[in-house]
Amino acid sequence: MEDTASRGIQAFIADVVERGGKAVRLTHSRRNPVQVWGDDGTSCIVRVRSKLSGDWQARKQDESLDDDDTGSQFWVFVDLASSPEEFFVVPSSEVADDIRAEVDLWMMDTPGRTRTGHHAIPLSRVAHGRGRWDLLGLAGEKDPSRYSDAQRATTAATLRADAAARASARKKPAKAAAALEELIDTRLEVVADFEGYRLVGRFDPDTQTLEIMRGPMQGRRFPDPTTAATAVASHISGDIETHDGWEFWRTEQGDRIPMGQNSIR
């Protein structure tokens, strides 16, 4: 989610400064790039992925460096559930090779799949990058006095404003009848997790329509779960995605959504 991403970037920037460096969030990509300057003045671009629980989320297309519009040299995986936060620094080329190998195995398991969609990265695959600040030209020890309360507040405010602007740009005008519809809404609530976003929808088993209630493309209604899944995934990733809606969407309990007599697979 955007709040998780912003929290992760804020925590990362704070650590960079406390280790004698400098960091600035870049805005040319939605993939959370940050430019980092080490304490020796050298510069690099990193992609920051953050999580509060479970696995970090990437895309299968991240197997190719050509698909990375950030021009990153490293990925930084931020675990916000740890106290203090933990950071795992891995070269972008290594991340791409790792994802490619995993996608190869996934493709072999079921021929005919496409190399698109979200891709989970568990801790075991990045654990070797724990605390590798040296890769970014930064000190191993922190000096909290380097990052003042004023800097912390300014960074937090900037990231909150950026998150709000992005969320506002994605939202569609609400319909006047939305509040009334919510009061009598008997549709099934369904959810999906994609690239760090928790999507919430309402599925009508009788008509097969699915409306996105929360997340990117909020307020959009689609004729079936597959059309909804494909549209919202493509919107988030910026690529052409194809997803089976009956696998993409689940109930809060993790069950498949019911297929009506009019459903098309």
From TrEMBL:
Name of the protein: RAMA domain-containing protein
Domain of life: Bacteria
